[in-house]
Design goal:
One of its GO terms (biological process) is NAD+ biosynthetic process. The protein contains nine helices and six strands; from the N terminus they run αβαβαβααβααββαα. It has helices at about 10-20, 40-50, 75-85, 100, 110-120, 130-135, 140-150, 180-185, 200-205, and strands at about 25-30, 55-60, 95, 120-130, 150-155, 165-170. The chain has a six-stranded parallel sheet with strand order 3-2-1-4-5-6. α3 (about 75-85) packs antiparallel against α9 and α5 packs parallel to α7 (about 140-150). The longest helix has 14 residues, at about 40-50.
C-alpha cells in the first residue's frame, strides 16, 4: 500500500476487493470510550456490514497518545466495563484489551505491529472518525502504519474527509454524538437517553460518573 495524493481512488473497486477477500478481516476501532456511545456502535456496525468484515474489535486506550488537558479520562477498568456492556448484544463485536493490558501510552503503530505478529492470518482495518483524519500526519510512524493496516474513515459532522493517506471512506449515516457531549449532559443533569445504550446509561447513573465533569 503506498501513500497517495488523494483520499480514495475508485473506492467501489477497493471495497469490492475487500468484501470478496477470503482472508480473515477484522476491524479495529480504537478509542478512549469515555463513555462508549451510539456513534461508536453505528459506525462499527456499518463498516462491518459494508466491508463484510468478520468482526470488530473495540480497543480502548490505556492512555490516549495525544491526550490533552481537555480530555480528562476515567480509569480504563471503568471504560472497559462500559464497553463490554455496550457491545454485549452483538455477536461479532468484541473488546481488544491489548493496550489496556500494556498500560501507559500506546502508539497505534506499535500496537498494530504486535497484533499482526500475534495474528498473521488476519487483515486488519483500522477505523477512524472524520475528526481523526486531519490528525493522521501527526501520528507516530504514520507512513509505516499505513503499510501495516488499511485505514477506514467514517464521516463525522463538521470534519474534513480529505487526506494525503490511503483511507477508504465508508458512507454511513452521520451521528453528531460525542463522549464529551455525553459527559457534559450528565454534568448539567441533562438527558442522555438514546445517546448511549440503556445499560451504559444505567451504569453511568449507578456509579455517578461525570457528575463533576463541567
Ligand atoms: N459520532 C461519531 N461519528 C464518527 N466517528 C466517531 C464518532 N464518535 C467517535 N468517533 C470516532 O471513534 C473513535 C474513538 O472515539 P472516542 O472514544 O475518542 O470518542 P469521542 O466521541 O471522539 O470522544 P471525545 O468527545 O471525548 O473526544 C475515533 O476515531 C473517533 O473519531
Ligand atoms: O499512534 C498515534 O500516534 C495516535 C495518535 C492519536 C490517536 N491514536 C489512536 O486513535 C484512536 C482514537 O483516539 P482518541 O484519542 O480519539 O480516543 C486510539 O486508538 C488512539 O490510540 C493514535
Amino acid at each position: 500500500m503506498s501513500k497517495q495524493s488523494s483520499v480514495i481512488t475508485e473506492p467501489e473497486i477497493l471495497i469490492e476487493e475487500i468484501r470478496t477477500s477470503k482472508r480473515e478481516k477484522v476491524g479495529i476501532l480504537g478509542g478512549t470510550y469515555n463513555p462508549p456511545h451510539m456513534g461508536h456502535l453505528v459506525m462499527a456496525d456499518q463498516v462491518k456490514d459494508q466491508l463484510d468484515l468478520d468482526k470488530i474489535l473495540f480497543m480502548p486506550t490505556a492512555q490516549p497518545p495525544h491526550s490533552s488537558v481537555k480530555k480528562k479520562t476515567i480509569s480504563s477498568d471503568i471504560r472497559v466495563k462500559m464497553l463490554e456492556l455496550a457491545i454485549q448484544d452483538h455477536s461479532a463485536f468484541d473488546v481488544e484489551l491489548y493496550e489496556v493490558e500494556a498500560g501507559g501510552k500506546n502508539y497505534t503503530y506499535n500496537t498494530m505491529k504486535a497484533l499482526i505478529e500475534l495474528y498473521p492470518a488476519v487483515d486488519f482495518y483500522f477505523i477512524i472518525g472524520g475528526d481523526m483524519i486531519s490528525d493522521l500526519p501527526t501520528w507516530y510512524k504514520i507512513d509505516e502504519l499505513v503499510q501495516l493496516v488499511q485505514f477506514v474513515g467514517v464521516k463525522r459532522p463538521g470534519f474534513e474527509k480529505e487526506s494525503e493517506y490511503p483511507i477508504i471512506m465508508v458512507d454511513t449515516p452521520t451521528l453528531d454524538i460525542s463522549s464529551s457531549f455525553i459527559r457534559h449532559k450528565v454534568a448539567i443533569g441533562g438527558s442522555i437517553n438514546y445517546l448511549v445504550p440503556r445499560v451504559v446509561q444505567e451504569f453511568i447513573e449507578k456509579e455517578g460518573l461525570y457528575k463533576d465533569d463541567k
